[in-house]
Amino acid sequence: MPRPRRKPPRSGALTELPPLKILRSILVLQLWYYTTFFIFAVFVSLVLGQEFSPDWVLDWRSVRGDNTLGWTVGFLCVVNGFVTVIPILVFISRSKLVPDFALTLHFINLLVTSFYSGAIPTNLLWWGLEAASAALMIVTGVWACRYREMQPISFGTLATKKTVNPTGDPANGSAEPLMGNNSYEMGNIRGDDNV
C-alpha cells in the first residue's frame, strides 16, 4: 500500500520562525534592553554624582514623581525603549512581529521587576512609562521595519540614468521630457512646417 502524500509545510510556518529562533530573539532583546538600561543608568549616576544601584533598573519603586532621580530613571525607561528598536530592526525585521516582541519584552520586564522588588508594581507613573516605552518601541519599530521592507531590491546591478541626447535639443524632439521618464511631449517634427 503506498504511503499517503505528505503535505508541504505552509509558507512561513515553522521554516521562518522556529521556536528556538523566537526564544533566541527574545533573549537577545532582553539582554540588549537590560544592558543598555544599565549603561544609561551608570552614565547618569556618574553625571549626577549619585551612587549607582541596580534598583534603578530592576525596582519599580525607583521611578518616582517626587524627586529628580525618579524622573530621570523614568526618562531612561522611555529612552531605552527607543534604543531597543535597533535590535528589533536587526533581529526581527518584520513589521508584523514587532508588537509581539515589544510586548513580550515589557511583560518579561514586569515579571523581572516584580520578582526583584517582591511585589507587583503599584506606581501609576511606572505603569505609564512602561506603556509609553512599549508604544514608542512598537511605533518606531514598525516604522523602521516597514521602511526597510519597502526599500527597492537590488539584484547586483547599479541603477544608471539613461539619457538619449546629452545636449537636449528641443528642436529635434530629443530633450528630456518634463513630465516623467516615459511621457512624450508634442513637439515640432521636421516637415510640420509645410502643413
How does this structure look, described?
With 195 residues, this protein is an all-alpha fold. It has a domain at 19-149. The chain is built from six helices and no strands. The longest helix has 30 residues, at 19-48. The radius of gyration is 28 Å and the shape is flat. The protein starts with 18 loop residues before the first helix and ends in a 46-residue tail after the last helix. The mean pLDDT is 84. Pfam families: SYS1 (PF09801). Residues 166-195 are annotated as: Disordered. InterPro entries: Integral_membrane_SYS1-rel. One of its GO terms (biological process) is protein localization to Golgi apparatus.
Summarize the SSE layout with pairings.
Blueprint: H1 19-48, H2 55-58, H3 68-83, H4 85-92, H5 98-117, H6 124-149
Keywords:
195 residues; mainly alpha; 6 helices; flat
Task: Please give a quick description of this structure.
By secondary structure, this protein is mostly helical. It is built from six helices and no strands.
**Percent in helix:** 40-55%
Low-confidence stretches: none
Number of helices: 6
Strand content: under 5%
Intertermini distance: 84 Å
Instruction: Identify the overall geometry.
Output: flat
Could you tell me the number of beta strands? 0
Give average pLDDT, whole number: 84
Q: Sheet bearing the most strands, described?
A: none
* Rg, Å, rounded: 28 Å
H-E order: HHHHHH
Give the structural class: mainly alpha
